[in-house]
Hints:
The chain is an all-alpha fold. The protein has nine helices and no strands.
Amino acid sequence: MYIFVRFQPAATVIRVLTRFMASATLALATEGGTDVAASSTGVASLAGHAAGTSFYDKLNSRWHERALQLFMVVVLGHWGEHLAQAVQIFVMGWPRPEANGILGLWYPWLIKSETLHYGYAIVMLIGIWVLRKGFTGKALMWWNIALVIQFWHHFEHFLLIYQATTHHNFWHKPVPFSILQLFFPRVELHLFYNTVVFIPMVIGMYYHMFPAAGEPVQQCTCAWHPRQAAAANA
């Protein structure tokens, strides 16, 4: 039995996205000096005494390491789908309509659904945004770069699902088209999108796990050598 997720009128979706971005912008504007100043108590102590007790605060302090690990499972799973699709097309020579990745071998209708692709894009956007507060210094800079790129990636998918939902394709195309899809094939384009989002995420996590001397002290336990990191910032 096929499971179809029908979106309500596009105005509802737009309102949800507008509210999300408004709250994100407000948080950025008021965040200001949220980076914790260097302290001689050490990273492990900071992780045990987080600045706040809300679920959001815990995600970015004592639970940050585990949350990032779970988030990366989702990211790498999606990467596996895109890489499998690329292998099917460019190595195995499958026709593009039949190259549906791993899940598509059993559920081709699911891979062709814009709902799945948009769902992943919004999960990625929310995940990067929610976990960004736990980053500091260079790690935060690179994580923010990934956030900006993913927002555009998400917008492209929003255009696709809007067209699929309203049955009104832009630019008189026979199927839903995003903006850059006017210039590049869809498979290559979204493989590129996922690459340019993933690279700054990896760089950000590297600086997060191996913070340089002088970087603001983290409230989480993600650093591989937390005592050394704390000593370097003392």
